[in-house]
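Would you be willing to look carefully at the protein I have copied below?

:::
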Amino acid sequence: MASRIRRNALGAELATTPESGVDFRVWAPNAKKVRVVIANPTGQPREVLLASEPGGYAAGFVAGVSAGARYQFRLDDGDLLADPASRYQPDGPSGPSQVIDPSRFRWTDGAWTGLAPNAHVVYELHVGTFTPVGTFAAAANELAYLAQLGITTIELMPIAQWSGANNWGYDGVDLFAPHHRYGTPDDLRRFVDRAHALGLAVILDVVWNHLGPAGNVLPAFSARSR
């Protein structure tokens, strides 16, 4: 079945129509066939062939899949691979991706309008070492202290999923997924929401010019990524 109208070009998106399911879309120009493999905790995984689209894309709508479902892609008859546009890797980059519904989160920062350019007093924060626990939730509990110090802007060091437990963040391989040891995407949203409630801006240090040495699936999807 052809792809539904999407908000983003790639990844897994919940249907915006009354029909329950997920629209999957991936760029894999070198593959002759692309299948999405959806995990089944109580039985055999569900494997669905995606339709080819112009430009090297493969896409398809799979009914009956909901938020929280775990999935991977199979290119031709190869190994299972994470979604390059995954929003969350609950077991790390070598495990399955997870369907995320960002609309479930209830923001409370509607009054937040940001800071003037000359009002930024920046604190660079490494989530993994900022607290003994090393999570978004634990860091959020300490934001009031930073606000009292006179900090106005939190700069998160890179949080994209990498392979392994501890890292400065500059070896990310799933650029749309927060590192699973830090918490879920909603944990990150709560961190930002709490910061805004305290008058703190949040900015993100990112790495766009390279990927980490382990857990990077992009070369499997296209030789152009090598």
